[in-house]
What we know:
Layout: H1 8-23, H2 32-47, H3 59-64, E1 68-69, E2 76-77
Helix pairs in contact: 1-2
Amino acid sequence: MAIPDRNLALELIRVTETAALAAAPWVGRGQKDLADKAAVEAMRKMINTVDMAGEQKLQPLLQRHGWDVDKKTWQIKQPLKQCEK
């Protein structure tokens, strides 16, 4: 059995950490939408740098909410439409 040369869990933790750091300037300022936007944008950029493959289960959910996922690269693309609240 080959020894893994990387730890996917640590890479995904870095994705979460990046999102948290991007949202931090907005915490406690009553700007939830700006904090969410900063976190999502940072997470999207960072997760697209993680080299991973697997079975995709979120695509139907993401598409229902206006997001698109490239089936070959797994990159999350810009919203197809604005989500309604």
